[in-house]
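Q: Could you fold this chain for me?
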Amino acid sequence: MPGVTAPVTFIRETKGQFKDLTVPEEFVKDFYFRSDKHLMVMLRVVGTDADKVKSFFNDSEDHVLTIETTESTHGKEIVQEMVLVSSYLDEGPSLNVDINQEIPMVRLILDFQLK
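A: Sure. Below is the predicted structure, expressed as structure tokens.
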């Protein structure tokens, strides 16, 4: 499965201010270009950062985001402006079965198109 060898940084402008989110490569489950113009990113973030990821991508569809990382297949650095055309967010069940322990987790499928 294609992936990345460096954290993925997403940058977006909201109301004149730039916000960024850096996702460590261990949370990036899939990162591949479906064509020259489409990128699909699958994330699974576990722990306290799950809420940060959820709020960053909340209402982000149809917005331009800059994506920065290093792709693992060819070791190519990527700095690309893309439009988030669709996203799927799932706050799945906790991975832990211990009683009284709620570890937050979020799964995201992000579909980008070249700007």
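A (continued): The mean pLDDT is 87.
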